[in-house]
Structure formats: structure tokens, C-alpha cells
Amino acid sequence: MFKSILLIGATRVGSFGDYVAQELIKDSTYFSRVGFFVDPSRPADESKRARLRELQAAGFEIVESTNFASPEPYKGFDCVLIFLGNHGLYMQPTIIDAAIKAGVRHFYPSEYGADLTVGENWTQRYYKYKVETREHLTLRATQVADLSWTAYVLGRLTEWSVISHFGFDNKNRKARIYGRSSGRQSLIGAADSAKYLVETLKEPLSDDSKGKQRTYRISGSNPTYAEIFEILERVTGKKYEVTYLDVESAKEEEPQAKRAGDIDAELAASHKLIQGREGTLVPKPWDNDRFPHIHPKGVEEVLREAFATERTRKWFGLE
Ligand SMILES: NC(=O)c1ccc[n+]([C@@H]2O[C@H](COP(=O)([O-])OP(=O)(O)OC[C@H]3O[C@@H](n4cnc5c(N)ncnc54)[C@H](OP(=O)(O)O)[C@@H]3O)[C@@H](O)[C@H]2O)c1
């Protein structure tokens, strides 16, 4: 399968790509070459600089480039995995075209979330650049023989599901949720999801996925909001005051945020609609059974660990 892989956007400590990198560090002997694309013109705090030193010490290649559009950094890699965050997603078609020129024939686009084909997800602002990227790959596959890509569908990462961006005020034990207490979502811990992702890299492409998309749907469980708050209350020992709001009322927030030029608020409003309509519930069947040696932790265990970790506590607004 893929012997040489390049990860983009995976060196910020605590990002999803960083979780994948941490899994690769544990055992990367399967791959002959693992590189990390690093743009040296981007800001780097001490934790990122330390991470880069760790990756180099573990034998990984740091591929420095300030130009995503040049084929040069992608040369010699079979597969490029993109982990760019929301503000960088628009660059994916440029990256894909440059990497194709360099000879890359498989991509993991920066998705790692809901199934884009479920409900109204395909037309939501939150997924605009993810959809455009899939469309771009579909187009390029009509022009480039043997081009294929992996859609890695996980639902939501448990650690991200309880942050302020999604209506949680953990410091004051309050939450404003668009939807109902019975609303469900699919959750999996970030480290477990990263473990599964690394395993998918080792699976050969089937004949059906050559020249097109292969999809993995891998998650952990489908708790309701009521269940999530019961867990949070056990984990923190405190009661949460939860206000449930009409999902459709979030529709007005998105154009308001757009007019104000606030992209994060626009994305948050769009996510409220997706989440409130259960758009992050991953349809079954799931592919977890392909990797029976992985036993994902439950929501409570993941949150207990995250609420006890300094980095994630800060991120939850607790310190
Ligand atoms: N389903 C879920 O619950 C969930 C949760 C988290 C993430 N995800 C998905 O995982 C992927 C990565 O998300 P993340 O939250 O880990 O990302 P992130 O931390 O926001 O960003 C990852 C990296 O992308 C690079 N980047 C971001 N904006 C950029 C720009 N404008 N120009 C150049 N580089 C830019 C940055 O790299 P440098 O600054 O280091 O250069 C950044 O460290 C996304 O597809 C996201 O939707 C899903």
C-alpha cells in the first residue's frame, strides 16, 4: 500500500494531525518515508518547535516549504494526508494539483468529521471547502489514471464536542445547545480515531476504490446530549445548567456573521444547524470491525482524561 506519506498541517500540538503523528511515532516501521510539511513562515510557539524537534529525533523528515502550489515538496511521496484546519481548507485543490504533478496518487483530504452526504450536510457553509475538495478530486480522477482518495468519516472527536465554540461554558457549568436533549451525535476520542486512521493507511486499495473514493466510517458511540451532560456531571462533579434552543433559529446567525465578516461565527452558526439536525451522526454500518485489535475508549473515559490534562483543561476554558 502506501510506503511514503506526507502529512500537512500536523505539527501544532493538540491538532487532529498531531494526534495522528503521535500514533505514527509509536510505530512507523511500516512506512519507508514519513514527512511533515512545514511552512517556516507560519507562526510557531515553543510547543510546536519542541514537537518538530521530537519528530526529527524520531526519524521523521521535516519538509520545509512556503509554497503549497509547488510540486517540489510532494516529490517521492505516494500519499498526502491533509490536516489543515478550517481557515486553510480552501487551499486543498491547490495542494492536490501540485502533488499530482509531483506524482502523488492518493490523498486523505482534511475531512475527519461528519458524513458529508448525510441530510443537508452537503450544502452547509461549514463543509463548503470540504465539499469543493471532494468535487475537485472527483474531477481530477477523470483526468489522472489511478488517482484515488480516502474519505475518513468519524463523526465528532469527543474532546472537541464540549468546547466553547460549540456552546459549552465549562468554567461556569453552563451550555447553550441548539437542538434537543435527545439529539444524538457520533463521538470517538481523538487518540483512538488517529489509531484507526493509521491502520487504514496500511490497508491495500481494493479494486473498486482505484480511481475513486474509498470511505471509512469509524466512530465510537452515539450518545444523546442528555447522556453527554450526565457524563460531564460525573466527570466534573458539578451540575450543568443547559438551555436547549430551537435549531432553526440558528439560520439567522449565519448571514449576520457573514455580513460582519466573522468567519468563525459564521462557521459556528452553520455547525449549530448541522449538529442540531443530527448531521454528525455517522450512518451504519461502521468499519470498526476491520480493526478488531483497537478498542476505543468510551466518552466518559476520554473526557475524564481530558479534564485531568493541563493542555485540554485550558482549552476547555477551565484555567
Ligand atoms: N470531527 C471533529 O470533531 C473534528 C475535530 C477537530 C478537527 N477535525 C478535522 O480535522 C482537520 C484538522 O482540524 P484541526 O482542528 O486539527 O486543525 P487546526 O488545528 O485548526 O489547524 C491545523 C493546521 O492547519 C494549518 N493551517 C490552518 N489554517 C491555515 C492557513 N490559513 N494557512 C496555512 N496553514 C493553515 C496550521 O498549520 P501551521 O500553523 O502549523 O502551519 C494548523 O496548525 C479538519 O478537517 C477538521 O475539520 C474534526
Describe this structure in words.
One of its GO terms (molecular function) is oxidoreductase activity. With 319 residues, the chain is of the alpha/beta class. The chain contains ten helices and twelve strands. The strands form three sheets. The chain has a seven-stranded parallel sheet, sandwiched between helices. A hairpin with a 4-residue loop joins strand 8 and strand 9. The model has no long low-confidence stretch (mean pLDDT 96). NADP nicotinamide-adenine-dinucleotide phosphate is lined by residues 9, 11-12, 15-17, 39, 42, 83-85, 87-88, 110-113, 154, 156-157, 160.
CATH C-level category of the domain at 4-157 and 189-219 and 282-296 = Alpha Beta
Largest sheet: 7 strands, parallel
Q: Could you name the CATH homologous superfamily of the domain at 4-157 and 189-219 and 282-296?
A: NAD(P)-binding Rossmann-like Domain
> Mean pLDDT across all residues, rounded?
96
Spell the H/E element sequence. Answer: EHEHEEHEHEEEEEHEHEHHHH
What features would you highlight for this structure?
binds NADP nicotinamide-adenine-dinucleotide phosphate, Rossmann fold, three-stranded mixed sheet, 10 helices, alpha/beta, 12 strands, 319 residues
What is this structure, in a nutshell?
The protein is an alpha/beta fold and 319 residues long. The chain contains ten helices and twelve strands.
List the helices and strands and how they pair.
Layout: E1 4-8, H1 16-26, E2 33-38, H2 46-57, E3 61-64, E4 79-82, H3 92-102, E5 106-108, H4 128-143, E6 148-153, E7 156-157, E8 168-169, E9 174-178, E10 187-188, H5 190-202, E11 213-217, H6 225-236, E12 241-245, H7 253-260, H8 263-276, H9 299-307, H10 310-315
Parallel strand pairs: 1-2, 1-4, 2-3, 4-5, 5-6, 6-11, 7-10, 9-12
Antiparallel strand pairs: 8-9
